[in-house]
């Protein structure tokens, strides 16, 4: 699987937004790869909504002002001031909950996912029951449209979940870059470096910093003066860098969890091995059989070394299959979301083009902000995908 940004943002035109009339108006809540937080709660809270209701957040006085994750104010624009706006009724509903009733967001997400799964399953069941009848063709068409509709909706749900995770660390997403470029210069403020780095473990953060240094060409220990120095970059290169950094954050999340699991297994096995060694020595002393040390000898040094292995060394030891397994996106919905979000972020609203060859001037600080945000996006997306798939079965990517 390869993510690319072309001049035109090509998205499936057949994917239509959810028709509000189909629902009860009131109801309860360049890096190439081959390719959750658990949400929930048993609190008995009911959220009522109208399918046509749209709750909005004020975009702010500046077109380039990032979205405010904590603001409850609204305007008639209906915009989150984020690059991508939800297109489905489910996405718009969660957008309203996110802005006005954030404490109920997890409950609303769980409710929406269960509803979407139920709608898709019902359509599939009707198709199965109509097999062999005159209505089979009709129900096949209905099931296909419902599946497409639910896919658009669940991608919106995933996007809102990622946006929620950013709000937890008080980091607003960078708005459309076309709003932030003035006279050929791009500047993103505030940097939010500390907040974006705070979500990663020490080992992951070391690899993130190395990635940032590699893609923007600035050492992590550079001075403030160097950080605010300017450089030129093509917009298309900037778009590729952002998409690649999302994938890298996704990859590191997967690899770090596998690393943690392997280390835990090694520690567990070492505990049993040390117990066997102690028992062996005790038996040897009592029976005066020296050769028992050949069985219960000092064979744990390699395992101890492996349990202390850094994430970077662990990843460098991957074979091709292991690397592909960690790097590959698991679902089509995650792939679609990355593509749609990258297109929305880098699309020029005036020309309708994405990531042109035009060169812009920007600071290394702004480049670092974009890369750190993208890596965090990939990390949050991995968690989101994991949770959503436990409620709403996502489509696996066919890698054949």
3D architecture notes:
54% of the residues lie in helices and 4% in strands. It is mainly α. It has 2 domains: 20-175, no CATH class; 177-272 and 309-383, no CATH class. Strands 1-2-4-3 form a 4-stranded mixed β-sheet. Helix 5 (202-216) runs antiparallel to helix 7, helix 5 (202-216) packs across helix 13 and helix 7 crosses helix 13. The chain is globular, with a radius of gyration of 25 Å. The relative contact order is 0.17. The model is unreliable at 10-62, 69-77 and 289-301 (pLDDT under 50). This is UV-B-induced protein At3g17800, chloroplastic-like. InterPro entries: At3g17800-like (IPR038925), DUF760 (IPR008479).
Topology record:
Layout: H1 89-100, H2 105-129, H3 136-168, E1 181-182, E2 185-186, H4 193-197, H5 202-216, H6 224-227, E3 230-234, H7 235-287, H8 292-295, H9 301-307, H10 311-316, H11 320-327, H12 332-346, E4 359-363, H13 364-391
Parallel strand pairs: 2-4
Antiparallel strand pairs: 1-2, 3-4
């Amino acid at each position: 699987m390869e993510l690319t940004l072309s001049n035109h943002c090509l998205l499936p035109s057949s994917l239509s937004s959810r028709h509000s009339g189909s629902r009860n108006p009131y109801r309860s809540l360049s890096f190439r790869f081959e390719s959750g937080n658990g949400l929930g709660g048993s609190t008995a809270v009911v959220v009522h909504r109208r399918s046509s209701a749209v709750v909005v957040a004020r975009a702010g006085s500046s077109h380039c002002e990032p979205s405010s994750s904590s603001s409850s104010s609204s305007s008639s624009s209906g915009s989150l001031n984020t690059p991508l706006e939800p297109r489905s009724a489910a996405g718009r509903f969660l957008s309203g909950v996110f802005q006005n009733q954030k404490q109920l967001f997890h409950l609303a997400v769980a409710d929406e996912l269960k509803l979407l799964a139920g709608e898709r399953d019902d359509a599939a069941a009707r198709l199965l029951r109509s097999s062999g009848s005159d209505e089979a063709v009709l129900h096949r068409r209905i099931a296909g449209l419902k599946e497409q509709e639910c896919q658009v909706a669940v991608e919106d749900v995933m996007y809102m979940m990622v946006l929620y995770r950013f709000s937890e660390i008080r980091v607003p997403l960078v708005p459309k870059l076309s709003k932030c470029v003035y006279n050929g210069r791009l500047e993103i403020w505030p940097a939010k470096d500390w907040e974006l780095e705070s979500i990663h473990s020490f080992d992951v953060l070391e690899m993130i910093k190395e990635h940032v240094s590699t893609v923007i060409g600035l050492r992590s220990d550079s001075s403030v003066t160097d950080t605010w120095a300017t450089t030129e970059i093509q917009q298309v290169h900037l778009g590729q860098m952002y998409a690649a950094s999302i994938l890298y954050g996704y990859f590191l999340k997967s690899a770090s969890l596998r690393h943690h699991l392997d280390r835990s297994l090694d520690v567990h096995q070492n505990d049993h091995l040390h117990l066997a060694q102690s028992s062996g020595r005790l038996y040897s002393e009592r029976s005066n059989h020296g050769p028992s040390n050949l069985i219960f000898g000092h064979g744990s040094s390699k395992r101890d070394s492996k349990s202390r292995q850094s994430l970077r060394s662990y990843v460098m030891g991957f074979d091709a299959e292991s690397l592909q397994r960690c790097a590959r996106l698991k679902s089509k919905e995650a792939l679609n979301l990355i593509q749609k979000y990258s297109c929305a972020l880098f699309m020029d609203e005036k020309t309708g083009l994405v990531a042109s060859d035009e060169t812009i001037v920007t600071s290394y600080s702004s480049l670092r902000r974009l890369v750190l945000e993208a890596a965090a996006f990939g990390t949050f997306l991995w968690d989101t995908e994991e949770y959503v798939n436990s409620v709403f079965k996502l489509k696996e990517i066919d890698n054949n």
